[in-house]
Design brief:
The chain is about 60% helix and about 15% strand. By secondary structure, it is of the alpha/beta class. The protein has a single domain, classed as 5'-nuclease (Rossmann fold, 3-Layer(aba) Sandwich). Helix 1 crosses helix 2 and helix 5 packs across helix 6.
Length: about 120
Amino acid sequence: MLFDTDMFIWVQRGNLKAARMIEGADERLLSVQSYMELLQGAENRRQLELAKSFLRDFGFSTLPLSENVGHRAAVYVEEYGLSHGLRAGDAIIAATAAENGLILCTSNAKHFCPIKDLKTRIFKP
């Protein structure tokens, strides 16, 4: 399962339901976009190291930005940007899931559910 950046934020805020969802996943993946968002969200070196440690300790693998992911993300922005507010970062995350045949776990139903070829698991905190 590919986890959206918001799932990590829920865990950082102490949401046990989000932590259990991640812990219960057979495979823990994130897109390079989510990885970069997590690093940028760190306010200091300690938070940066905690984020990296969390990913390492829970066995997360980071999926790269490929040419196919980039192309699909651009198509998603064109198709869903104006109608649903899909931004580039979310498009890359969605395209990473779709290109790899993965389910995207997210609490952001508004942006992701309209995407026809994307399988989602919506997290409700």
